[in-house]
Amino acid sequence: MPARPSVRSPARYYALKALYRIETRAAYADYVLQALRREAELSPRDQDLLTTLVDGVTIWRKTLDWVLARYVRGGLERLDPWVRNALRMGLYQLMFLDRIPRWAAVHETVEVARAVAGEGAAALVNAVLRRISARLEQGRPVATFPPIEIDPVAHLAIRYSFPEWMVRRWITRYGVDGARELCRFHNTPRPLSLRVNRLRATREEILADLEARGLRARPGAYHPYIVQVEGGLDLAAWPAYQEGKVIAQDEAAALVPYLMDLRPGLRVLDLCAAPGGKTTAIAEGMGDRGIIVAADAHFGRLRRLREHALRMGFTIIRVIQADGQRPFLPEWADRILIDAPCLGTGVLARRSDARWHKQESDLIGLTRIQRGLLEAAARMLRPGGRLVYSTCSLEPEENEEQIHAFLRDHPEFRFVSAQGKVPSPFVDAEGFYRVLPHIHHMDGAFGAILEKAGG
Predict the structure, then answer these.
(1) H, E, C per residue of the chain
(2) Is 342 tagged catalytic?
(3) pTM of the full structure
(4) Which of 183, 272, 342, 392 is catalytic?
(5) Which of 50, 215, 236, 416 is spaced 20 to 30 A from 139 at the CA atom?
């Protein structure tokens, strides 16, 4: 591919480049976008279009491919990846970006396809997109989906672009209507969520700063230090961020440390600490007095945690690389947080490609790791201490089933209700902390409080 051909739409050129890398190298969309933003030197408007196209095509890939298969003779699989992704990018603009005139979506996508793949590719892209555009101009559907009455799993999976195994699970638990609402939530762009460092700023100060910059900002609905921001904010370049006054964190995740009953002077162990959102919230809750051992098995991820702790001015966080499934501080901690690795089916709205990197079979390995973390934590918690287990998953095997199994094997632990620790809408009938995206309109989360006898 040429270094950068002369095209009228550099945003589309770099978007196609990103989509090609994501497909052919199984690369993560976030990392590809970060690299291309540094390479591209685009205007803010083109940066926004680049992100919109890459995230949009990645999210809606299953739906786009279903439609395109009706217009491409021989199927999409036979096409060169450049051509396939040019078609996806063009169709995404036609179906989802009303602000872009149809003629521009077709013409500029064809121009980029010509620059990267030649005249033959441009002719195919032009023919397919023009046929679809003509149907849209006439108010005719571009394709039909499997009837929901006959095959609700296939309908929702194709209509909302999700793996069928996810949709099947959600229909089983929430019904067809609940699964549809969950799919819609995960396909809706989420505002940037910030947690204010209460030791350095107030929420009112941060809201005023954002509004002075012309950004739409509002308080979180439940957490007293959360701010939601609409529009483009270059977080790393914002003085309030550089001064450690805020950290990016969703409201549902920010509520988890409230389950820990924090106070100054405690000894706290955070077993899966990176990148540090909950670790820094724990330090705030302790007034930066006591000690937090922040452990993670992945050395590279710990760098971000150290950066956050330093930037936000916390002195009590001790960062170590350690396998949380192997006890290394026997009966040491007053509090332990296990923010366990999981499928992450509650936070799919935050990462455009997350749905495609997960398999139902991943549950086998993940639940084994989660149980290993619980077993190790049980040996590192002192008598009378509190263990909080949390995930950003909606799957029962990773949540309540994991806790029930642990309690059956550990009579020295008792379950404590989350009632009174977090807002009551998030406490379910069993006393677990549970946030359901399609009901609470927040990222999904789960939390359980366990206390060890004695002390």
Answers:
(1) CCCCCCCCCHHHHHHHHHHHHHHHCCCCHHHHHHHHHHHHCCCHHHHHHHHHHHHHHHHCHHHHHHHHCCCCCCCHHHCCHHHHHHHHHHHHHHHHCCCCCHHHHHHHHHHHHHHHHCHHHHHHHHHHHHHHHHHHHCCCCCCCCCCCCCCHHHHHHHHHCCCHHHHHHHHHHHHHHHHHHHHHHHCCCCCEEEEECCCCCCHHHHHHHHHHCCCEEEECCCCCCEEEEECCCCHHHCHHHHCCCEEECCHHHHHHHHHHCCCCCCEEEECCCCCCHHHHHHHHHCCCCCEEEEEECCHHHHHHHHHHHHHHCCCCEEEEECCCCCCCCCCCEEEEEEECCCCCCCCHHHCCCHHHCCCCCHHHHHHHHHHHHHHHHHHHEEEEEEEEEEECCCCHHHCHHHHHHHHHHCCCEEEECCECCECHHHECCCCCEEECHHHHCCCCEEEEEEEECCC
(2) no
(3) 0.94
(4) 392
(5) 50
